[in-house]
Amino acid sequence: MSDPSADIAKVLISEEEIRRRVGELAAQVQSDFAGRDLVVVGLLNGTLMFLADLVREIGLPLRLDFIGVSSYSDGTESRELVFTKELKLDVANREVLLVDDILDTGKTLRAVINKLNGMAPRQVRTCVLLSKKARREYDIPADYIGFEIPDEFVVGYGLDYAEKYRNLPSIGILKPELYS
Ligand code: IMP
Ligand code: MG
After folding, report:
1. Which of 36, 93, 103, 140 is placed for a possible disulfide with 128 were both Cys, Cβ 3.0 to 4.6 Å?
2. Class of the CATH domain delimited by 16-149
């Protein structure tokens, strides 16, 4: 197998830029949630790297849990949402910070926010590493956004194309000939 970075046409966000911005987001979260009963909920699998880096920079006591949601599509078009892992912690009366890799149409976050709101949390705030504003179909409040990016399909740092490229340390645009 060849080096996955060879499939990248252009690096959009470097490791260094990611590190700096994640530090800024963590500092904001830390000041906003100081003294609160915080549960950080990550969406599997795309938030793996982002969540790991983010929570290590948040100097607050917090609980960590995950929700699995999959569109059961192996390409770039999202389809029907299926929950593959349910939340284990009780979030009733707690502050929830919902973390996702990318806010695209907003369909995923809308479904997860609705689900969480049924569990009577004090508040649900959202944090996404990336946002593609041009693609939004649902009006989802993103309280913390790492980077606004153009309408391009990106991979790396947890983001996949057909489950590949999640292990690339930077975020890049795939070579167009690799899309089927
Ligand atoms: P939404 O439900 O349309 O907002 O899509 C959100 C989900 O689609 C994300 O959690 C990603 O898994 C996936 N997604 C959207 N855009 C991209 C992209 O550019 N690269 C990789 N995954 C993406
Ligand atoms: Mg995905």
Report:
1. 103
2. alpha beta
